[in-house]
Amino acid sequence: MKYKIIMECEEVHNFLREFLIDEDATFLDLSNTILKSCGYPDDQMTSFYVCEDSWERRSQITRLDCSDGYFEARSMEETTLADILDEGYNRMEYIFDPCNERAFILRVKGEVQGYGEPEIVRSEGKAPQQIKDFDAFTKVSKDDNLAFADAFVDDEGFDSDEISLDGFEISEDI
């Protein structure tokens, strides 16, 4: 059997991908299919979140084994789709931009007869840029910070005599 999975992105209204993927495929196989369908390189720490019907995150499936006794996550390479989807879950998030927590939403729409390699059976719209441009963010933040700082400087400048140190205790014991 193959799962029919629909993938959408809330950032891009006309973006949609539809996959058929074997129930015995791993989450790494699904990740590679997603990356291929979007034209993304395989150089990010992508991950999946298995979600309840209300989109509440239940468990994480990561590219690398990140379990440490406190944090438990399954590995994409070792977890098959059937391991998770046969438990009744049919919603997932795929984090494609881990620095900004940007994600695709995936819904399992059923099963069809067949076995074999994953297939991209429907592709609409252009995928969003995988990693947001940090230069644009830095420029906006820097300009905003300068404007914010300028709000505290008046025409006369800074006068240290206007600052009262009452209530502050200065200790020379360090």
Could you describe the 3D structure shown?
The protein has 174 residues and is α+β, with helices and mostly antiparallel strands. It has one domain: Roll (Structural Genomics Hypothetical 15.5 Kd Protein In mrcA-pckA Intergenic Region, Chain A). It is built from 3 helices and 8 strands; from the N terminus they run E-E-H-E-E-E-H-E-E-E-H. An 8-stranded mixed sheet has the order 5-4-3-6-7-1-2-8. A hairpin with a 2-residue loop joins strand 1 and strand 2. It is elongated, with a radius of gyration of 24 Å.
Task: Put the structure in a nutshell.
This protein is of the alpha+beta class. Helices cover about 20% and strands about 30% of the residues. The mean pLDDT is about 85.
Uncertain segments: none
Order of helices and strands: EEHEEEHEEEH
Give the % helix: 10-25%
CATH superfamily: MM3350-like
CATH class category name: Alpha Beta
Rg estimate, integer Å: 24 Å
Annotation field: number of helices:
3
Strand content of the residues, in percent?
A: 25-35%
Largest sheet strand order: 5-4-3-6-7-1-2-8
SSE-based structural type:
alpha+beta
Secondary structure tally: strands? 8
Domain count: the total is 1
What CATH architecture would you give?
Answer: Roll
Quote the distance from N terminus to C terminus. Answer: 69 Å
CATH topology: Structural Genomics Hypothetical 15.5 Kd Protein In mrcA-pckA Intergenic Region, Chain A
Overall pLDDT: 85
Keywords:
alpha+beta, 174 residues, eight-stranded mixed beta sheet, Structural Genomics Hypothetical 15.5 Kd Protein In mrcA-pckA Intergenic Region, Chain A
